[in-house]
Design a protein that fits this description.
This protein has helices spanning about 15-25, 35-50, 60-75, 75-80, 85-120, 135-145, 145-155. With about 170 residues, the protein is mostly helical. α3 (about 60-75) packs antiparallel against α5 (about 85-120). The longest helix is centred in the middle third of the chain and has 37 residues, at about 85-120. The two termini are about 45 Å apart. The relative contact order is 0.06.
C-alpha cells in the first residue's frame, strides 16, 4: 500500500530500470527517435483500431467470383478448341478439382462469416451493473434540485438542507 500522496512510481519495484528500458531508442527508417514505449504503444494501437467488414452473403459472392476465375484463369477456350480429347479431359479434370477444393474453402469461409454476422447482430443485454457514486457528487445534485426533488431524495440520501431559500 502506498503512503498518502506518494507517487505511483514508488509502488513499482525498481522503477528506474523500467523507465530506462522504456525510454531506450528503437529507431526505424521513418522515425529515428522512436522509443521502446512508443513502439509498443503503436503496435497496441494498430492491433486494436481496425474496422471489420462483415459480408452479408460471402458464400454467394465467392462462388460467383470462382466462376469468373475459372472462366478467365483456368479454362482457356482457345486452347480447348485446338486440343485433342485427352487434353480437353485433363482441362475438365483440373476445373472439377479446382471447383471441388474452392467450394470447400468457400463453405468454410462462409460459415465463419455467418458466425461473425450472427455475433454482430445478436442482441446485447446486461446481466449486472454495480454503480459507485461518491457523495460529493450526490450533494452537488441535491443542492441544484428543486425543493420537491430534494424532499423526495433527502430521506434516502440524507441530503443536507441548504441554507437560504430554494425555489
Amino acid at each position: 500500500m502506498l503512503p498518502e500522496g506518494a507517487p505511483l512510481t514508488q509502488a513499482i519495484g525498481q522503477w528506474m530500470p523500467w523507465r530506462t528500458a522504456l525510454a531506450s531508442a528503437m529507431p526505424t527508417d521513418k522515425n529515428k527517435s522512436r522509443s521502446v514505449l512508443e513502439k509498443h504503444l503503436n503496435d497496441y494501437t494498430a492491433r486494436n483500431t481496425f474496422d471489420y467488414f462483415i459480408h452479408k452473403d460471402l458464400g454467394r459472392f465467392l462462388r460467383r467470383e470462382l466462376d469468373f476465375f475459372i472462366k478467365n484463369e483456368v479454362m482457356h477456350l482457345d486452347d480447348v478448341e485446338s486440343e485433342t480429347a485427352p487434353n480437353v479431359e485433363s482441362y475438365l479434370a483440373r476445373i472439377k478439382a479446382t471447383r471441388r477444393i474452392a467450394h470447400k474453402l468457400i463453405d468454410f469461409l462462409a460459415q465463419l462469416e455467418n458466425f461473425q454476422k450472427r455475433l454482430w447482430l445478436k442482441k446485447k443485454f446486461v446481466l449486472d451493473t454495480q454503480w459507485l457514486i461518491s457523495m460529493d457528487r450526490v450533494l452537488r445534485v441535491c443542492n441544484r434540485k428543486s425543493r420537491s426533488q430534494r424532499n423526495r431524495f433527502a430521506p434516502g440520501w440524507r441530503c443536507p438542507q441548504p441554507a437560504g431559500r430554494m425555489e
